[in-house]
Amino acid sequence: VTLSADYYMAVYETTQKQFCRYNEWHRSHPNNMRATDGCAYGPEYDTYPVNRMYVTDFRGANKGMGWPANHEVDDESWIGQLRATTGLDFDLPTEAQWEFACRAGTTTAWCDGEDAKGKPNEHVFGFGALGYFANYNGVPLKAAGILQPNGYGLYDMMGNVAEMCLDWAGDYSTDGSIAFDPKGAAKPDPFDVSSAQVICRGGRCHGVGDLLRSASRVKAKVQEMNEEIGFRLVCPAIAK
């Protein structure tokens, strides 16, 4: 895979406080199941990753579903409002952008440079330092940025919440060709928001250790409410 353009990636998974900049859902709807069923909410959880959100919440259900033909978002969506406020082209990462940032120059199975077989918690380095997951200590969701960052200074690329990517769920090409700026599978046709799936990366706090591999990929519905799914932002590099 070749990525032709530089980009910035958020140091942290998007937090509840950041999400509440444009959407007060978690604080203003404490009796709504999307905010309370397995999901911590309220100002005391400002630094926790936002979760139980739909892709349509932060990209929109109309223009925001146009990937890979374009990367437009609905004006009223969370990312739409962020773009309008900052003038910057924020979005979810493609799967390729996510994996490049996660690996941080490594080519091993795990982004700490470890390539040993077995469960991550059996490794000498130990993934208790890089990410939360059930095989290690069974911890629930935690605040972003508590553990060690990867080699690029990015926190929680492993564990905590799984992170949604732009790519629709689909298999990789098997023809061995070089992919330039891959955009993933084609948009589902006919498109059905209730069943369409996107790729998530990074494992999750309640998942098994094998899902923390840099190359591990899972699927999630566009409108799936899950306490273990969140997102992280990217932005094209700009001249300083």
Notes on the protein architecture:
This protein has 240 residues and is of the alpha+beta class. 16% of the residues lie in helices and 10% in strands. It is built from seven helices and six strands; from the N terminus they run βαααααααβββββ. The strands form two sheets. Strands 4-3-2-5 form a four-stranded mixed sheet. The protein has a two-stranded antiparallel ribbon with strand order 1-6.
Question: Which properties best describe this structure?
Answer:
240 residues; alpha+beta; four-stranded mixed sheet; two-stranded antiparallel sheet; 7 helices; 6 strands; 10% strand; globular
Give the helix/strand layout.
Elements: E1 7-9, H1 16-19, H2 25-28, H3 33-36, H4 55-59, H5 78-86, H6 95-103, H7 134-137, E2 162-168, E3 197-201, E4 217-221, E5 229-230, E6 234-236
Parallel strand pairs: 2-5
Antiparallel strand pairs: 1-6, 2-3, 3-4
Report the end-to-end length measured between terminal Cα atoms.
27 Å
Query: What percent of the residues sit in helical stretches (DSSP H or I)?
Result: 10-25%
- Binned strand content: 5-15%
Number of helices: 7
Topology, number of strands = 6
| Strand/helix succession | EHHHHHHHEEEEE
Largest sheet: 4 strands, mixed
Radius of gyration: 17 Å
Summarize the structure.
The protein is of the alpha+beta class.
